[in-house]
Write a structure and sequence with these properties.
- It contains 23 helices and eight strands.
- The chain has 487 residues and is an alpha+beta fold.
- Among the domains are: 133-271, Arc Repressor Mutant, subunit A; 283-411, no CATH class; 416-482, Orthogonal Bundle (Arc Repressor Mutant, subunit A).
- The strands form three sheets. It has a four-stranded mixed sheet with strand order 3-2-5-6.
- Helix 7 (148-159) packs across helix 9, helix 8 packs across helix 9 and helix 13 (239-246) packs across helix 14 (250-261).
- The N and C termini lie far apart (94 Å).
- The relative contact order is 0.09.
Length: 487
């Protein structure tokens, strides 16, 4: 059988990831601050990109204000000259006697010089910063009358205490790292555990609570007994069985439990220096004349343009400058792609925001109970884009609405069936479960089966395992752990 080579022409379609498409996809999931950083970085790398100057209207207003100032200036100068003539004595007129001592004493005040001068501390010494847990413990260690070796071992222990105040490494590993014995490390651990706050440097919850019991001079009490050997039974809330095994009354158990609840299970959080991070919305939804308007938060986002100076280089056909022209052409394409990608991102976010307002109009008007089930495909079909694009746009983005600040992903959730035939939002069902558990009798909390029946009375068709799933997502404890018979 012979072999031969042939040329054939075929027409086919395939998706090609152009540089512009790749850049647009890369910008979609970025937050506003990440976008600003990306634009700043691109401006530094690409000389053709520059920020746009203020609008011409602003320039005109500034120019008009300057002309107005120039017109008023001669008038002010004339008034100033007349006032100077009135206040300045003539040369032939002898000067009045001035009591310079009285003048000087009147001019002095605290902060300048003189008898009443008070030296204030510098600004650096007046700034107050929250003390870290490690700094607080190291200060106590340095103030303690310990040897050099004990101080070194104490530093090893303090350096391995986490933000909650617990020791994260074992004594054996710390002793090996410090080159000391386990006994010496144990002695140093006892020293650090005696520091403030009580319960610090504990290895587990039992030890943390026990340290606080001893610090409160409660050695030998029922609270110490419960902490040392019955924390698991306390978690089960079976106080009758616990009272019988310890040969005490239920009231004694309740009193000891109330005392234990006053202790801090995470003593290190008091010295947590992490500050709250405030979320800046990417989209604002404002109701104007009965209709919802969607606006993007473009504050501090640079507006880009192509530097006009390089246009002349692109128009130059001189062969001697071919390398320069090729370099400028490459940078020009990159700059153009960047500008178009940013604008495409803006338009896509506006389309998604408007689509969400159309789907969730009742939620914006009336609140959480009117939130409708929604999936990415619904919005994608509404604005004529792919689901993956909607997913990228809604990543790490927040929308400020009349009902509050929400992540864009919040509006996409599954649906729950209803006996009336329509679909109900899973978020709404979770809110109903939360309300049921909040209003229940604490002595007889509802079981998951009872919650199912209560939801059925509200036309919600849901299974028990789904109720269990939603309850765990809401961080609601089980029936036995919610039960409060004696507290």
């Amino acid at each position: 059988m012979g072999m031969e080579m042939k040329l054939q022409m075929r027409m086919s379609q395939r998706l090609v990831m152009t540089p512009m498409l790749q850049q647009a996809i890369k910008l979609l999931p970025m937050t506003r601050l990440e976008l600003i950083q990306a634009i700043r970085s691109e401006i530094e790398e690409n000389p053709l990109l520059e920020e746009t100057e203020p609008d011409l209207e602003e320039r005109a207003e500034e120019t008009g204000a300057e002309e107005k100032i120039e017109e008023e200036q001669p008038v002010k100068e004339e008034v100033y000259e007349e006032q100077t003539k009135l206040e300045t004595p003539e040369k032939d007129q002898p000067p009045d006697d001035i009591d310079w001592d009285a003048y000087v004493h009147t001019d002095l005040y605290e902060g300048r010089s003189g008898d009443g001068y008070v030296e204030f501390p510098s600004l650096e010494n007046t700034l107050r910063q929250k003390e870290k847990l490690e700094e607080h413990l190291m200060w106590q260690l340095n103030c303690s009358a310990v040897t050099e070796m004990e101080r070194e071992l104490g530093e090893y222990i303090i350096g391995n205490i986490n933000i909650d105040g617990y020791l994260t490494e074992s004594i054996e590993s710390l002793a090996e790292a410090a080159g000391s014995t386990v006994e010496d490390m144990e002695d140093s651990l006892i020293l650090v555990q005696s520091f403030d706050p009580p319960g610090v440097a504990a290895r587990d919850l039992r030890e943390c609570l026990h340290i606080q019991v001893l610090a409160a001079n409660m050695r030998g009490t029922l609270a110490e007994t419960l902490v040392k050997g019955h924390l698991a039974e306390l978690d089960e809330r079976n106080f009758k069985k616990l009272a019988k095994s310890l040969n005490v009354t239920i009231d004694d158990i309740i009193g000891a439990v109330r005392t234990i609840r006053e202790f801090d299970p995470k003593p290190g959080l008091e010295y947590n220096t992490e500050e709250a991070v405030y979320i800046t919305p990417d989209i604002y939804v404002v109701k104007v004349d009965g209709d919802y308007q969607v606006h993007l938060n473009d504050d501090d986002v640079p507006r880009l343009r192509i530097n006009p100076y390089y246009h002349s280089i692109l128009k130059n056909k001189n062969q001697d400058q071919k390398n320069t022209r090729d370099y400028v052409e490459g940078k020009f394409r990159s700059a153009l792609w960047m500008i178009k990608s940013i604008e495409q991102r803006r338009q896509t976010m506006l389309k998604v925001g408007r689509s969400l307002c159309r789907f969730q109009r009742e939620f914006l008007d009336k609140g959480l109970n009117y939130l409708k089930p929604l999936i990415l495909k619904d919005v994608a079909d509404d604005i004529g884009m792919h689901e993956s694009t909607i997913s990228r746009v809604t990543t790490n983005k927040y929308m400020h609405t009349p009902q509050g600040l929400f992540e864009l992903k919040f509006f996409f959730h599954s649906s729950v069936g209803s006996y009336l035939g329509n679909e109900m939002s899973s978020v709404r069902v979770k809110e109903m479960i939360r309300k049921i558990c909040k209003e229940e009798d604490q002595a007889k909390p509802y079981t998951d089966d009872q919650i199912v029946k209560l939801l059925q009375a509200k036309n919600v068709k849901i299974a028990r395992r789904t109720v269990t799933k939603y309850r765990k997502e809401l961080n609601i404890l089980s029936t036995s752990k919610r039960k409060k018979l004696f507290l």
